[in-house]
Design a protein that fits this description.
259 residues, mainly alpha
């Protein structure tokens, strides 16, 4: 199903809606073929009460999961922006270091940002990255740690550089955690089973105007499918056409390369 994330967003949402609506209307057709509207209307009063209660519970759960996944998506966006900001701050401050450390640090930062843009993000999209795969500390920290602090005229700048390097490594870890953080399978099971129950309940209302019932069932099915697919999209912040913007990385890399 992840291939849908790589499609043009309106197209992917249309495919999901069309497929689920087709199956939803097929179920309604089979039920109405077996039971007449008069038979179904006998249970309207009880069915309506159960449907309202169940719809409320399911709606609350959907809203909660959307809220959680949207927060995760938003946090992933902010952490990537902060990672870019820390890399740029470290790049500018390293220009005050003695030679050749200044040039080595700046080149290391260029390579780090380029690696994130060209390699790390694509790997995150397919879940093929871990905390052990390189990072700021493995490439940049040795340059700073091996420096002769006695030759550093500004000790405060050196201390701030270390703090900045630690924050850069922290934002990298948060980026990886965001890429690996998925909605648990148990939650997906509840959401999918709940959607089946919600849509199935509409089959047992005996409306005289069958076209109106088809319309109600199709709109409810499409709405539930769109929300579930939205959760799926938000749960993959680095994947496909709906991934978070990589513009901060591109802009920072452009600034570094011009310096």
């Amino acid at each position: 199903m992840e291939f849908l994330l790589n499609l043009w967003p309106p197209l992917s949402f249309f495919i999901v809606t069309a497929l689920t609506t087709f199956f939803g209307l097929t179920g309604l057709y089979l039920v109405r073929k077996k039971y007449s509207a008069e038979v179904l209307r006998e249970n309207h009063e009880v069915a309506a009460i159960i449907f309202n209660a169940f719809g409320l519970f399911y709606g609350v759960m959907l809203a909660f999961v959307v809220f959680v996944t949207w927060n995760g998506y938003d946090d992933a966006t902010k952490n990537l922006q902060l990672e870019c900001s820390e890399a740029l701050d470290l790049f500018h401050s390293s220009g005050q270091f003695p030679e050749p450390l200044d040039k080595n640090l700046q080149q290391g930062l260029r390579e780090y940002v380029a690696a994130v843009y060209n390699d790390a993000i694509p790997k995150l999209a397919v879940g093929n990255i871990s905390l052990l795969s390189g990072g700021a500390h493995s490439t940049l920290a040795p340059l700073v740690y091996e420096m002769d602090t006695q030759s550093m005229p500004n000790r405060e700048l050196y201390a701030e550089t270390l703090r900045c390097l630690n924050r850069l490594a922290e934002y990298r870890r948060l980026r990886i955690f965001a890429g690996n953080d998925t909605v648990p399978g148990a939650v997906w099971l509840v959401l999918l089973v709940g959607s089946l129950f919600t849509i199935s309940y509409t089959y047992f209302f005996g409306m005289k105007n069958i076209k109106a019932q088809y319309t109600i069932t199709s709109t409810l099915t499409a709405t539930v499918a769109l929300i579930l697919f939205l959760i799926f999209v938000l749960d993959h912040p680095f994947t496909g056409a709906n991934r978070i913007s990589l513009e901060p990385l591109r802009e920072v890399l452009e600034i570094m390369q011009k310096t």
